[in-house]
């Protein structure tokens, strides 16, 4: 293996233009880790938050952006028996994905589903870890329940629609254009709500209210989500694109026995992420291998064009995931 590798680093907090190609030394896998030769890296909203200076890496993680990748195992650290050199994997990363090589705990890697290309495999970890833990582990979504996901055409949204449909839930989604709404319908949503033309609260309440809502908007959506919930409904918050602060009448929460919860993935313990990976391997990965569900990929950019990839993501014109080819 080479001593040096190509990377994209954050030169200073700011817009996409602060992402610059550079060279770094190869990282070495520590106990329980694997070294991945990256073929493709996924691009995600937390990468942009880190670039802007508002989402610092956890202690010990790489300062390079990139929370998911797919590629080939190049080396294994001490204590690793489940992977060997040459295995094709996709993995959740603590950081460092915008590079030719990256290390991650071995328990956070999953096999590339049979027959799936590496570019599509790179779209899997971040969204599937997030949706599985929030919609099913925290939200407790069950067959027959009504599920609403905001941003249905995003990477998270396209994954959530498919997994919720797979579980037997009734799926509703919001999106901001006719094209994006059609994409949600094509993935299995029974109703796609263009939030520019319709009030999702009215639409969902007419159906009996949502049992589970997955939201990344926050801000003024929070009280509207509470109104849209059915009695004993669960609101799961995973981001705050419109801000984390809002005035909310909690009497509704008490009287209707609602649950408001949420999580972020990156700060969770290695053990917690390993448990999520096991759940995905058992319940979701067979359906990916069969082709019953699959990632939606919007576009591909060369690693050195990461700034252009971020600009596209922040334009919100994409449908599905954006990847970097390494």
From TrEMBL:
Top-level class of the enzyme under EC nomenclature: oxidoreductase
Pfam families reported for this sequence: ADH_N, ADH_zinc_N
Every Enoyl reductase (ER) domain range: 14-324
Gene3D superfamilies hit by this protein: Medium-chain alcohol dehydrogenases, catalytic domain, NAD(P)-binding Rossmann-like Domain
Q: What is its EC number?
A: 1.6.5.5
Q: Which UniProt keywords apply?
A: NADP, Oxidoreductase
Among the GO molecular function terms of this UniProt record, one is: quinone reductase (NADPH) activity
Determine the domain of life of the protein's source: Bacteria
What name does UniProt use for this protein? Answer: Quinone oxidoreductase
